[in-house]
Each structure stands twice: as structure tokens, then as C-alpha cells.
Amino acid sequence: MRGKSKLLRWMVAGCCVLPLLSGCWDAKDVDNRLLVGAMGLEKTSESTLKVWLRFPLPSATQESTKKDFFVMSQSGRTVPDAINKMRYKLPKSVESSSTRALLLDESLAQSGLSPYLEFAVRERSIPLDAVVAVVKGKMERIFTVPNPTGELSGIYTKLFFEPYAGGIPRKNKTLLWEVYSKLYNPLHANLIPFLTEGSQNSFVLTGNAIFMQGKLVGQLNKEESLLYEIFTHRFHDSEVELMNRADVRILHNHMHMQTSLKNGKPLIQLHCSLVTTLVDRSSFQHQDVAGIVAELKSILSTNADSMFAKTQAKGADIFGFGNHFRDRLHPSEFDKWPDMFKNAEIKYTFYITMRNTGLEFLN
Q1: Hey, how many other C-beta atoms are within 10 angstroms of the C-beta on 323?
Q2: H-type alpha helices, 267-357
Q3: What whole-number distance in Å separates Cα of residue 264 and Cα of residue 285?
């Protein structure tokens, strides 16, 4: 009798626990979600913007639609407002945590990034490692035209900048967390890739957009962008520099920086060591190693002068030089750094080692 009573108590306890083991009551199956591959933000007026979303489609859906993606756009006062309005039109949940690329319209970038990116960090609705780029042209075409090489939405954009795929040094890969952190750091300005719609592919790189206090104020061309990569330790892989005498591939670089503060004026000295190799020669001009090195230094110096002139004129320290003066400035002086950067004295020296020179056409 006592054994039956004990068994009954265990059965009652088990029945009480069963409701707690019924699984995740608020979960949504993956086939009931629309995974966002790429998101675009386009400013339409002073108070509204349009959000573009591109969703990859499963193979079963592709057979009926003949497309591997689905595109939707929606206007709203804010990004969360536009996405919420989309939910009224879609039979599935919008899953923005899968976003791989965030594309920003040029007019939006000129008005300021902070009001449009704050939601992503507060809600953590977009991965902080999503790549960010500014787009010049029609956002509609970029989102509605199929990717030429067949990658899923968002993946194409991410691979465009990845060092292990299509990324090269002139393509400045910028992540969402980097953009947001520099918006609130007066000692470091943003530099974001500048894309324009392409005729044969989704987009092409035109340079990098310079930001000051979160607003687009200028642009570096691709040659100047290469110097930015070299001076900021972001150089990866290799890059070819075209010259009159020969073509040279830059393989590696090493940077050493010296900084000082004299009478409130920043002094910055950059020592840049480059390892290069000769890949081609001119058939019309005689050349030697010294001449090729001198020409390469001249080209790099010209682009460096142009790059520093553009950034210092706007007070946009895209290099993060201000972070090296953090311990020499009072926190109340951090906001003065853009003006200090305008008057900073920046000097640089290139040390070039050239390989692969033992060929017949060189002395």
C-alpha cells in the first residue's frame, strides 16, 4: 500500500512538470522566417527614409519564381518603423540578425549617420560585423538586379571586401561596430567605402568616403586609399602600383610612428618600410633599380600629400592619430582634436626594398 502511494505521488509530480517541458512556445521555425541578406537605407525627405531588404530564397521557392532572392522596400520615419510596417505585408517573420551588408544612400550619409544607425546597436538587430558601404546611385537597381556571380544576397557584398575573397588593399573593409564606435570618438573619424552602381555587376568601388562628426565631407580616390591602408596597418594581401618605367607589386609593409606635442601643435613622423617585387617593365624606357624605386617613392608621396591635404582641410582624422595623444590631452580637450589635426605637422619617409630585379632588362 505504501509503495502504491509513493508511486502515485511521483506520477502527480511528473504531471506537474510536463507543461514545463513542452518546448519553446515562442519559437519560429526557420521556414517561417525571411532571412535578411542585405539592408539598404535611402533618405527620401527630411523626416522619412526608405528601407530596402533583400532576402535569399530556398531552392524549393526558386523553382517557381526563377529567382534566388526576394526584394522589398518600405518607407518610414525610422528604420524600426519601416521594418515594422513590412511585417504587416509579409506572411513570415523578418529576421534581420542574418544581415551581412548595410548600404547607405549618399544623401543620407551627407545628412548624418547617427540617427539611422543607433537602432542597430541599441536593439542588436543587425550583426555588429556586418560590412558598411556608402552607395552613389539608385539603391533600387542594386537591390533588384541579380548578383552576376550567383552568390546569395548579402554574401556578394561581404565577399567583395573580404581579404580571402575579392578584397584588395584599396577596398577598405569597414564593419558596423567600427563605424558606430568612431561616431562618438572625437579622436578618430570614419572612412567608409564608396560604391556606385555598375553596368555589368552590382556595384564598383570608386574610393572611400571621408566623414566628419558623422557626416560625409569628402572622398579619397583609390590611389589615396592605398596610402591610407599602408599608414594605418590595414594593408593585406598585395597590390600592384602602375608606373611609367615598370609595374611594381607591394607585398608587405611595416609602419613605425613617432608623435609629440610642441606648444599645442601635434608633430607626427611616419616611417614606412615596403617590400616590393618587379612584375613588369616598360618596353620604351631604359630603367634601373634606383630609377624605379625613385619613381615609386614619388608616386606614393604625391598620393600621400593629396590624402593628408583632403583630410586635414576637414579636420577628419581617419587615421586615428588622435588616439596616440590621448594620454597627453585632458578629456575636456578631446573635442578640440579636429582643429588640432588641421594644424598638425605630418612627415613621412618611405624605405623600399625591391626584389626580383635580377633580369636582363635591368642594369
Answers
A1: 14
A2: 289-314, 337-342
A3: 49
Q: Which helix (H) or strand (E) holds 4?
A: helix 2-17
Tell whether 227 and 207 lie within a shared domain. no
How confident is the model at residue 346, as a pLDDT?
96
Query: CA torsion sign, 321 to 323 to 329 to 332?
Result: positive
The single-letter code of the amino acid at 287 is Q
pTM: 0.85
* Residue 335 CB partners (closer than 8 Å, separation 6+): 186
Query: In total, how many domains does the chain have?
Result: 2
Mean pLDDT for the stretch of residues 184-198: 92
Contact status, residue 57 vs residue 71, Cβ threshold 8 Å: no
Same domain, 203 and 327: no
pLDDT over 90 percentage in the chain: 47
Q: Which of 184, 201, 220 is the endpoint of a domain?
A: 220
Structure confidence at residue 96 (pLDDT) = 86
How many CB atoms are located within 10 Å of the residue 257 CB? 15
The residue among 220, 235, 264 that closes a domain is 220
Instruction: Give the angle subtended at the CA of 145 by the CAs of 144 and 149, to the nearest 5°.
Output: 135
Distance CA 292, CA 115 (A): 49
> Residue 70: what pLDDT?
86
131-177 pLDDT, tens per residue? 999 998 888 888 888 887 776 767 888 888 988 888 888 889 999 99
